[in-house]
From TrEMBL:
It comes from Fraxinus pennsylvanica. Belongs to the HisA/HisF family. It catalyses: L-glutamine + H2O = L-glutamate + NH4(+); 5-[(5-phospho-1-deoxy-D-ribulos-1-ylimino)methylamino]-1-(5-phospho-beta-D-ribosyl)imidazole-4-carboxamide + L-glutamine = D-erythro-1-(imidazol-4-yl)glycerol 3-phosphate + 5-amino-1-(5-phospho-beta-D-ribosyl)imidazole-4-carboxamide + L-glutamate + H(+). IGPS catalyzes the conversion of PRFAR and glutamine to IGP, AICAR and glutamate. The glutaminase domain produces the ammonia necessary for the cyclase domain to produce IGP and AICAR from PRFAR. The ammonia is channeled to the active site of the cyclase domain. This is Imidazole glycerol phosphate synthase hisHF. NCBIfam families: hisF, IMP_synth_hisH. It is found in: Plastid, Chloroplast.
Length: 602
C-alpha cells in the first residue's frame, strides 16, 4: 500500500464527527457487536548513543503500535483487539524501546514514511530495537523500510537493516499493477509465524517489492510469485516482517498475528485443504447495496436494472437483510472481499450518513477481509455553507474501516475533463485520494449501458462486435457511461473512461452493466473483455451473475481479476462456497476458506 504521496497525520483531513480515538491505550473490551465469534544509508546507533528500555514494564496483554499517521490502520487495530490484546500507540522514541512487542503496519509512500521516522527521531531507535532482537512485526511498507533503499519516487534511503533495493513490479510482462489479491507463499525456512500457512492464500496489495539475492537470503522466510519471485516475508530471531496483510487475510491472517503475539501458541492441525494454494487466486466479491427504506432503516437491497423497489402496490424498497449481519455471513462463507455501495449516498451530504459509517465500524471489528465502500464520494458544501473535499469524505470512510473507496459519477466528470485538456489538475477526487492513500485504495465504478449500432463508424467512441445482436439485428455496440445511478447518460464510452481513470490514478476498475443488472443471465462478457484488455490494472466484473457457470465463464473468457455478485448471494440462490467449488473443479485458482484452531499458552 505504498503507492501514495504521503500526507502527515496533522494534514490528513478530519471532520467534526465523533469516532473512537486510537491514541494512547485502547481497551479491547469495547467491541460493539459480537455476532460472529468471541536519513543515512544505514542507520546505526551513533557513538555515545545509548538506548535502554525503561524500568516500567508493559502488561503482557499490551501491543505497541507504530502508526505514523498515513492511511488506515484500523484493520490492524481491530485484529489485535479481536485476539484479546490492548494497544499502546507510539508517541515518543522511548515508547519503542519500552515495547514488549512492536507492530509496524506501514501504509503510504516509502519516502514520506522515512521522513516522518527521521523527523520524530524514531528511525535510529527502531533500528536499535530490531538489532537487539526484540519482538517486531512489520507489515507491507513496514517490511520494505527495513531495506537499504527504494526506487519509489527515488532512490530513497531506508533503514538499511536488510541488503537490497525495493523496486516496482514490471507491468510490461502482462501482470497487472498493483498486485492486488490472494496469492500463495513459498516457505523457505522455519518462519515460526507462518507454520502451516503454505497451503493457503494471503492477501497482498502493493506496487513495489523487494527481490531475493545472495546478500539477503539469510533473512528470507518466504517468497511469492507474481511474474517473478519477490520477498513475501523475512525473519531473523524475534524480528518478522511480511509484505502481505495478515489483518486482511481472514482466519489464516489472524493465525499469523496470533503466533506473533503469543509466540508459543500451538496449532491443532485441521485436515489439509483439497487444493494447495499455488498462485494468485481469482476473487469472489460479495456486494451489498445499502440504502434507507421508507421507514428510515438501513437495509441491503438489490436492483433490477438499477430499480430497487418492489413491483407491488406499496412500491416499497426491496429489503434483503441487515448490512452488518450479511457482511459477517459472507465473510464466514468465504467471500474474498465485501463491498458496500451506499446507493442513497446522502445526496445532499454523505457525511451526515452516520448509520453507514457505523456499519463500516461494526463490520470491520469482525470481518477480516478487504472492505470497499462507494457512494457520494465527491466535494460537498453542507447546509451551513461549510465546504468538504472528496478527500475528507474518503478519509472518514477509511477511518471507519474501509480499505478501498469506490468512485462513480465524480470519476466520469474527471475523465471527461482530462480527455478534453490532457491536463492532470490533481483536483479531482480520484487524483486527490490516490495521491494521499495510494492508487490501490481507489476503485472506479463504471455504469455503462449498451447503445446498438449498425455501423461502428457512426460513433466517435470505441465500438465492438457483440455475440448477441441488438433488437433490430445490430451487430455492434458502444457502451455509454452513465452517472447518478444510471439515470443520466454521458458523452463518453466505457473504454475511453477506463483508459482515462487508469492514467488519473485508479488502482482497480469495477465494470457494471445496466442491461445485465439483476437479469441472472451472466456477465456481459464482451464488455468485461473490452475493459480488461484495455487497462493494466485489475478489473472486477459485475452485473448479471445467476449461476456458478457464469463465474467460470467470465474468468475463462476475459482477463478479469475478480467477479462480484449481490442478489444471488442475498437470496441464497447460489452460495459463495458453491461458486468456489465450481471454479476449483474448472481448474481456476481460488482461495479456500479454512479455519485453524490454536491453543494459547495464556
Amino acid at each position: 500500500m505504498e503507492a501514495a504521496t504521503f500526507t502527515p497525520a496533522t494534514q490528513i483531513p478530519t471532520i467534526g464527527l465523533s469516532y473512537s480515538s486510537s491514541s494512547s491505550l485502547c481497551s479491547s473490551g469495547s467491541r460493539s457487536l459480537q455476532f460472529l465469534r468471541r536519513s543515512s544509508h544505514n542507520l546505526k546507533p551513533s557513538k555515545g548513543f545509548s538506548i535502554r528500555a525503561s524500568s516500567s514494564v508493559e502488561d503482557d496483554s499490551v501491543v505497541t503500535l507504530l502508526d505514523y499517521g498515513a492511511g488506515n490502520v484500523r484493520s490492524v487495530r481491530n485484529a489485535i483487539r479481536f485476539l484479546g490484546f490492548d494497544i499502546k500507540d507510539v508517541q515518543t522514541p522511548e515508547d519503542i524501546m519500552n515495547a514488549k512487542r512492536l507492530i509496524f503496519p506501514g501504509v503510504g509512500a516509502f519516502a514520506a514514511a522515512m521522513d516522518v521516522l527521521n523527523k520524530k527521531g524514531m528511525a535510529e531507535v527502531l533500528c536499535a530495537y530490531i538489532e537487539q532482537d526484540r519482538p517486531f512485526l512489520g507489515i507491507c511498507l513496514g517490511l520494505q523500510l527495513l531495506f537499504e533503499s527504494s526506487e519509489e519516487n527515488g532512490p530513497v534511503k531506508g533503514l538499511g537493516l536488510i541488503p537490497g533495493v525495493v523496486g516496482r513490479f514490471d507491468s510490461s510482462n502482462g501482470f497487472r499493477v498493483p498486485h492486488i489479491g490472494w496469492n500463495a507463499l513459498q516457505i523457505r525456512k522455519d518462519s515460526q509465524i507462518l507454520d502451516d500457512i503454505e497451503s493457503h492464500h494471503v492477501y497482498f496489495v502493493h506496487s513495489y517489492r523487494a527481490m531475493p539475492s545472495d546478500d539477503n537470503k539469510e533473512w528470507i522466510s518466504s517468497t511469492c510469485n507474481y511474474g517473478e519471485n519477490f520477498i513475501a516475508s523475512v525473519r531473523r530471531g524475534n524480528v518478522h516482517a511480511v509484505q502481505f496483510h495478515p489483518e486482511k487475510s481472514g482466519d489464516v491472517g489472524l493465525s499469523i498475528l496470533r503466533r506473533f503475539l503469543y509466540r508459543k501458541c500451538e496449532t491443532t492441525k485441521k485436515p489439509s485443504v483439497q487444493r494447495k494454494a499455488s498462485k494468485l487466486a481469482k476473487r469472489v466479491i460479495a456486494c451489498l447495496d445499502v440504502r434507507t427504506n421508507d421507514n428510515g432503516d438501513l437495509v441491503v437491497t438489490k436492483g433490477d436494472q438499477y430499480d430497487v423497489r418492489e413491483h407491488t402496490k406499496e412500491n416499497e424498497v426491496r429489503n434483503l437483510g441487515k448490512p452488518v449481519e450479511l457482511a459477517g455471513r459472507y465473510y464466514l462463507d468465504g467471500a474474498d472481499e465485501v463491498s458496500f455501495l451506499n446507493i442513497t449516498g446522502f445526496r445532499d451530504f454523505p457525511l451526515g450518513d452516520l448509520p453507514m459509517l457505523q456499519v463500516l465500524r461494526y463490520t470491520s471489528e469482525n470481518v477480516f477481509v478487504p472492505l470497499t465502500v462507494g457512494g457520494g464520494i465527491r466535494d460537498f458544501t453542507d447546509g451551513t455553507g461549510r465546504y468538504y473535499s472528496s478527500l475528507e469524505v474518503a478519509s472518514e470512510y477509511f477511518r471507519s474501516g474501509a480499505d478501498k473507496v469506490s468512485i462513480g459519477s465524480d470519476a466520469v466528470y474527471a475523465a471527461e475533463e482530462y480527455l478534453k485538456t490532457r491536463v492532470k489538475t490533481g483536483k479531482s477526487s480520484l487524483e486527490q485520494i490516490s495521491r494521499v492513500y495510494g492508487n490501490q485504495a481507489v476503485v472506479v465504478s463504471i455504469d455503462p449501458r449498451r447503445v446498438y449500432l449498425k455501423d461502428p463508424n457512426n460513433v466517435e467512441f470505441k465500438a465492438i462486435r457483440v455475440r448477441n445482436p441488438g433488437p433490430n439485428g445490430e451487430e455492434y455496440v458502444w457502451y455509454q457511461c452513465t452517472v447518478n445511478g444510471g439515470r443520466e447518460g454521458r458523452p463518453i464510452g466505457a473504454y475511453e473512461l477506463a483508459k482515462a481513470v487508469e492514467e488519473l490514478g485508479a488502482g482497480e476498475i469495477l465494470i457494471n452493466c445496466i442491461d445485465c443488472d439483476g437479469q441472472g443471465k451472466g456477465f456481459d462478457i464482451d464488455l468485461v473483455k473490452l475493459i480488461s484488455d484495455a487497462v493494466s490494472i485489475p478489473v472486477i466484473a459485475s452485473s448479471g451473475a445467476g449461476a456458478v457457470e457464469h463465474f467460470s465463464e467470465v474468468f475463462l473468457e476475459t482477463n478479469a481479476s475478480a467477479a462480484l455478485a449481490a442478489g444471488i448471494f442475498h437470496r441464497k440462490e447460489v452460495p459463495i462456497q458453491s461458486v468456489k467449488e465450481h471454479l476449483s473443479k474448472e481448474g481456476i485458482e481460488v482461495r479456500i476458506s479454512t479455519s485453524l484452531n490454536y491453543t494459547s499458552p495464556l
